[in-house]
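Inverse folding, one chain.
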């Protein structure tokens, strides 16, 4: 059972939760007066943030991180941006892994060119380079960098090392650029939510089960959104650190900012096995710690779980699903019709057989599923079994070569292969649609991180639709042992026999380039033909004119819908090439509309008459001149850009391309009810777009213009009521607002993007 507290609470001696409304009980238990402000300082998170804060003000943090990590979908753009901004070396350890664009057959040599760029950058600027197939980004960071009391920043949303005592944050590339330029990560001090673990999970329950049980309770109500999840309570020690890592990486799917766990002897053991015992220190809350909320998790009560399409929060107990297959699966089919917009069909009811639900594919992979413990448990379940010669298939991706080596030497890989499983190298592809895309109308069960719409690689626009359900490796193995009939791990009795893990980093010593503080500025960056510089972007003018180029009324819009994952990865180093895919799965006409607006803006910057470049603007500006105070507005001095309206955009990936792709083809602003994540909003601002919000319903349509006067002046005010005007048949006033921005964020947007801002500082 997972229970959410209505308000804040005190944790006393790390054991007892007392609601804030019953503070007298806390005082009786401790024998002293409780000071809430002081108790806030008692969380593990507060202490780590304080140690990394450079502002001297714990209300508004300016964080400097101990290390950073990027993969090959993001590091080229980050390094290009930092180079254009004046970077001369990597000031902190910066790990460049190659675990996303690993399949070099996609796009010819394009992906391998990105890898060579990364290696040349590591040699020039002093970085750490991990070649393809050696390790997925987060497993490498667990094995080699995460440690107690540290903070790590990564350009991947699943940057989570809390189970090892590290507060890690996944952000867009712009935030990593700031660290490379010795600037800071600026954020208001986040609230901290206690994830109080009690009891011990059953042997057939795995980390994905625990994670999905929590996600199902906290995602939709935003209980931990942009907050820190702090795992405390006696139940923490019922899990090994490897198990905790599997829970921790999934905290991203709650939309929290970061996570941290109390540490113990098992944390020390994990670090010692990996040759880094000195990175251990005990982390516990103070005797009195105040939390802004509590998620109480009774581990004993958690059952094997499944997250059905199309979100990790769409959770059910597997037993509950199997008992109500028709009703529950019908609701997913209805949702699938909305997702595909009628362009493709997806069926689940026809997969119900006399034995149960027939699954077409299974995958255990990546930073969530490919951990040592998960693969061992799957091998134990499948030893001597047969996955069958029908439509069902199972693929297993160990998370790193050291894990792979250990599994091989102990015979587990052979057990899996003899059962019919396909074994692959460390690769994140199944998590975002660049590997093991299911057949049309197929259902894949996966111990990976996400199951967003079409993230697995299907293309409804081409008449193809498949989907993913998330499950733990244990239940996936039970399903595989049952020929692909959806089966709970509770039906088997083989769990818990996991031998000690021994870490061998011979492959790292031989293949990983460790160049931190060894940069050679005389070295040259190696460019492939697809690696392009960022195009120029205009600074913000006093008045702006936005053309509505897409209007999305879905409750949530994921970053995968803003810029699809999968095969588009080959274009991640080519800003304009990648931008051609923007909203391609959600609004295929958007790119054409936005590029037409961009042509007009480029004409304006070149000194041409925009009313000649776009004749309809003559009538638009005539209407603008009817607005009081706007009679003398000059088109040549009014920046023109495209705009997207979405109810709640940005759930999912940290990759900055979700925003930069809008910007490079003319995007100037978004208007939303709210932003799903801080990281997407940060990306929007770092790329010079204005993160507008509005409380009213959007009474404008695609093709309408929205005029916003005095926008630069508005940034100097409280930004709570920014007057704007919809220029349609009539001129209608609307109210926009912008949530809090730091002074640097305001300067970045005014400059037109982070690159412009940094260049102006370096002059």
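Residues assigned per position:
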């Amino acid at each position: 059972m997972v229970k959410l507290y209505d308000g804040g609470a005190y944790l006393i001696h790390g054991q007892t939760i007392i609601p804030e409304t019953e503070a007298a009980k806390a005082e009786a238990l401790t024998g002293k007066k409780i000071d809430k402000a002081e108790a806030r300082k008692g969380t593990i998170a507060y202490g780590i943030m304080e140690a990394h804060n450079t502002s001297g003000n714990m209300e508004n943090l300016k964080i400097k991180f101990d290390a950073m990590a990027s993969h090959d979908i993001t590091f080229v753009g980050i390094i290009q941006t930092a180079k254009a901004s004046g970077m001369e070396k990597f000031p902190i350890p910066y790990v460049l892994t190659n675990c996303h664009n690993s399949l070099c057959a996609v796009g010819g040599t394009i992906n391998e060119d990105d890898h060579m760029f990364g290696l040349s950058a590591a040699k020039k600027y002093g970085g750490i380079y991990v070649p393809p197939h050696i390790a997925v980004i987060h497993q490498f960071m667990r094995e080699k960098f995460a440690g107690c009391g540290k903070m790590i920043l990564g350009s991947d949303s699943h940057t989570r090392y809390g189970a090892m005592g590290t507060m890690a944050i996944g952000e867009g590339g712009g935030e990593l650029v700031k660290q490379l330029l010795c600037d800071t990560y600026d954020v208001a001090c986040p609230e901290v939510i206690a994830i109080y673990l009690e009891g011990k999970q059953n042997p057939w329950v795995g980390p994905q089960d625990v994670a999905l049980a929590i996600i199902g309770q906290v995602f939709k109500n935003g209980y931990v959104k942009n907050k820190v999840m702090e795992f405390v309570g006696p139940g923490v020690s019922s899990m090994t650190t490897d198990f905790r890592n599997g829970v921790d990486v999934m905290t991203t799917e709650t939309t929290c900012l970061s996570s941290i766990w109390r540490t113990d002897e098992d944390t020390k053991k994990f670090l010692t096995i990996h040759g880094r015992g000195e990175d251990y220190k005990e982390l516990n809350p103070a005797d009195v710690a105040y939390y802004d909320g509590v998620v109480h998790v009774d581990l004993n009560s958690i059952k094997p779980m499944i997250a059905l399409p199309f979100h990790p929060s769409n959770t059910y107990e597997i037993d509950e699903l199997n008992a109500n297959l028709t009703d529950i699966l019908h609701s997913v089919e209805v949702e699938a019709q909305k997702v595909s917009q009628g362009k493709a069909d997806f069926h689940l009811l026809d997969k119900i057989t006399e034995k149960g639900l027939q699954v077409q594919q299974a995958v255990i992979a990546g930073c969530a599923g490919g951990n040592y413990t998960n693969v061992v448990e799957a091998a134990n379940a499948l030893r001597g079994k047969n996955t069958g010669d029908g439509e069902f298939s199972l693929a297993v991706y160990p998370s790193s070569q050291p894990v792979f080596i250990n599994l091989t030497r102990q015979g587990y890989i052979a057990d899996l292969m003899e059962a019919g499983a396909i074994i692959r190298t460390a690769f994140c592809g199944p998590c975002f649609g660049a590997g093991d895309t299911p057949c049309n109308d197929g259902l894949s069960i996966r111990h990976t991180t996400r199951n967003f719409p079409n993230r697995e690689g299907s293309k409804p626009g081409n008449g193809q639709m498949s989907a993913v359900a998330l499950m733990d490796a244990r239940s996936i193995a039970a399903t595989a042992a049952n020929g692909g009939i959806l089966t709970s791990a509770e039906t088997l009795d083989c769990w818990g026999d996991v031998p000690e893990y021994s870490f061998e980093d011979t492959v790292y010593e031989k293949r990983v380039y460790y160049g931190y503080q060894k940069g050679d500025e005389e070295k040259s960056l190696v460019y492939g033909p697809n690696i392009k510089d960022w195009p120029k972007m205009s600074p913000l003018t006093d008045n702006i004119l936005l053309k509505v180029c897409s209007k999305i009324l879905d409750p949530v819009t994921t970053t995968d819908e803003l810029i699809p994952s999968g095969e588009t990865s080959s274009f991640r180093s080519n800003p304009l090439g990648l931008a051609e895919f923007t909203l391609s799965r959600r609004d295929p006409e958007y790119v054409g509309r936005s590029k037409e607006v961009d042509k007009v803006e480029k004409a304006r910057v070149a000194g041409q008459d925009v009313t000649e470049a776009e004749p309809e603007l003559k009538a638009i500006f005539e209407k603008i001149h009817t607005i009081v105070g706007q009679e003398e507005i000059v088109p040549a001095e009014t920046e023109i850009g495209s705009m997207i309206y979405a109810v709640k955009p940005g759930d999912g990936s940290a990759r900055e391309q979700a925003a930069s792709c809008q910007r490079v083809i003319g995007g100037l602003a978004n208007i939303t009810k709210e932003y799903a994540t801080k990281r997407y909003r940060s990306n929007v601002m770092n790329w010079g777009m204005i993160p507008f919000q509005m409380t009213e319903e959007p009474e404008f349509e695609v093709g309408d213009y929205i005029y916003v006067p005095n926008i630069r002046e508005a940034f100097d005010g409280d930004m709570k009521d920014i007057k704007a005007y919809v220029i349609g048949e009539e001129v209608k006033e609307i109210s926009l607002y912008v949530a809090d921005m730091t002074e640097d964020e305001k300067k970045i947007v005014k400059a037109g993007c982070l690159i412009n801002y940094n260049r102006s500082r370096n002059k």
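The first strand starts at residue 2 and ends at 4. The radius of gyration is 26 Å.
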